[in-house]
Amino acid sequence: MAGIRDVAAAAGVSVATVSRALNGHRSVSPETRERVLGAVDRLGYRPNAVARSLRTDRTRTLGLVISDVMNPYFTELARFTEEEARAHGYSVIIGNADERPELQDHHIRTLLDRRIDGLLVSPADGRSPFAPGTRLPTPPVVLVDRWVPGLDVTVIRAEGATAVRELVAHLHGLGHRRLAVITGPPATTTARERVEAFREALAEQGMHLPEEYVGEGDFRAGSGRRVTERFLDLPEPPEVVFATDNLMALGALDAIRARGLRVPEDIGVAAFDDIPWFQHTDPPLTAVAQPVADLARAAVGALVDLIEGRPARSVTLPARLVVRRSCGEPRAGTPLTPRPRRSA
Amino acid sequence: MAGIRDVAAAAGVSVATVSRALNGHRSVSPETRERVLGAVDRLGYRPNAVARSLRTDRTRTLGLVISDVMNPYFTELARFTEEEARAHGYSVIIGNADERPELQDHHIRTLLDRRIDGLLVSPADGRSPFAPGTRLPTPPVVLVDRWVPGLDVTVIRAEGATAVRELVAHLHGLGHRRLAVITGPPATTTARERVEAFREALAEQGMHLPEEYVGEGDFRAGSGRRVTERFLDLPEPPEVVFATDNLMALGALDAIRARGLRVPEDIGVAAFDDIPWFQHTDPPLTAVAQPVADLARAAVGALVDLIEGRPARSVTLPARLVVRRSCGEPRAGTPLTPRPRRSA
DNA sequence: GACCGGCATGTAATCGATTTCATCTGCCGT
DNA sequence: ACGGCAGATGAAATCGATTACATGCCGGTC
């Protein structure tokens, strides 16, 4: 509980000098600096971050609001975000919106109240994250993964359309023609992008997407299960179900297993967002993988640039298709697309 | 950027009155309160949490330091912790130690610097979390899941021994005799408890645990793979591998699959810490499940009690065995042990 | 009618740091 | 010899809230 005054007393200098010594100010003589530093660790003094923040108006803290911590994709994003932020000297406070806009708003308000220096958001819905009459001084903001159309803000995301097209080509190559999709909430850009890319890719291959092969989910396992059950009840069920996120794919697997059907023999499954667990599911899942670590790094980099007064540009990184066995055995000769990872 | 002075001016009162009105102080006349509240939302005023914390010496924030965010068990713990904390009016700052003691120390220091009101820790190793010369005023602390032997601190954890004994009985019942175990870092209490219980349970069943059937892991997938490979290289490999945490079980599955062996026909796998993904692995994994949500609730409850000056007791909650297919088909008649969940 | 108590409010101290401005001491140049 | 400047330090203002203490007023009591 030693304060700066105690250190000053112990070192026989004023609090101003202690502060200067600690902050590496130039005009402190080497001897006094030494004396101060000595007193500091003799007393085990640590500056009170709260007081410091009040005075300097900087908290050295970033806020990260994600849609769902339990989704491994976001867990990973959070983990790399913290890592990169720490490298820049920032802490991260994570807010879990649990896909609920009002919870997202709660976290954003709380974070702003705490005067974080910058905010990373992956919006739970299509509204501006600052809808609720926020006349707070908004710090720099960077959107990650998902974004909000009309909003002029730096966005760091992955380009999923190309990989989705590859996926469709892959499925077509395996002989599948009846492809269904489980979408996410239409308010999210990622859901829309993935479904649109899927629909267009089908068209390119001369297939089309009947209305009954489109089911709306909410990026949680439960909805994936329900939608898949509807697909299976169809007079002519699809040959492959494409889930636009990993948890819904899990739900799809559930539903299929509950009917006693086999993957991929009876029906194939593919997912957006690859995660380590997909290597171990039964069977291993074919999925589109985002470069999560790179996204996190780019996002933190951009945010820190903004905070420190430098400009920041939006970045789009490529996603890539990872073929496993959940849509049928790739025939010999099918290229496995481990393209070199390029950076945008 | 409106401050309390602006509100005071707008409402025609002093800052003291504004503060009192906002904090629900009794002696503010209804009319002035009304006037103040009006000004508040006309200006979109939100109190500066930093300034408030400095004055009141309370941040309404809890710190949560976990060993590994990417471990679904801890992710879930973090999620429920935040939920419960929010219900009590607290925010949570998560620190990910990544199983590295020095990173754990870093996070604890940072959290203390920020003057969190209380700290929840699941220690990465056996040392006191306050080893590094911390003469900071330590706020109330509660340990979750893992604990530190000599330390007199409230501990909220699950009792794994009973469930491990059930597991061994189950394996014995399936006819397995050669059982191996992948331990965690010996510095963690959870690793020791689980291995000890395992060893004792074997003894109870008249089996014993040869040294070469014990491999030390570090609670990460990679170590599970390496240890399992060693097991498989043995002249007489085990019939079942018990991983003392979920990620190492995943590694074990990897190693087994890499050899072209089948689970459970060639070798069985069981894990401590059940997670949703285990229903979808190939095959679904038999595991010991901890009541994570209850642990989180109890931990936050205890911590908040401590913070608010009430006493708090340590709590031990029961874990339970979830039998799936990874150790062989349970014969008809084997009880599936869905015992009613009791609370300690 | 003086006094007391409580209510409503204001003034100013306070939390623990940073930072502006002032002060003091040498030293240099002319 | 003296003005000026740079380096080292200290005193005090400051950040934006909360809160102890002071003040003024009103009503009730003896």
TrEMBL record, chains A, B:
SMART domains: HTH_LACI. GO terms for molecular function: DNA-binding transcription factor activity; transcription cis-regulatory region binding. Keywords: DNA-binding, Repressor, Transcription, Transcription regulation. Pfam families: LacI, Peripla_BP_3. It comes from the Bacteria. InterPro entries: HTH_LacI, LacI/GalR-like_sensor, Lambda_DNA-bd_dom_sf, Peripla_BP_I. Residues 2-56 form the HTH lacI-type domain. This is LacI family transcriptional regulator. The lineage of its organism: Bacteria, Bacillati, Actinomycetota, Actinomycetes, Kitasatosporales.
